[in-house]
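Lecture notes, unit on protein representations.

Consider one protein chain, 80 amino acids long.
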Amino acid sequence: MPVCRHIVGYRVWNNLMKTYPASVLAPLSLMVPVPVSGLFIAYWFFGEQLRGEQGIAIGLVFVGIAIFVNSAGIMVRLGR
């Protein structure tokens, strides 16, 4: 069964790479490491309990990615 999930994952990533430039998708790859996606998926789908520190860490990673993805717009708003 894990091979099937990998094939689906590669298929989705390949379709995204066809549609969007790599510079847009690169920040999304930061969500792949187990501490981020693994903890979040375990919480969301399997009802695992997260410690406060884990939730804060996941939130900080998502906020950092959001800032990075929107950095051009942020710089325009700041007038730089």
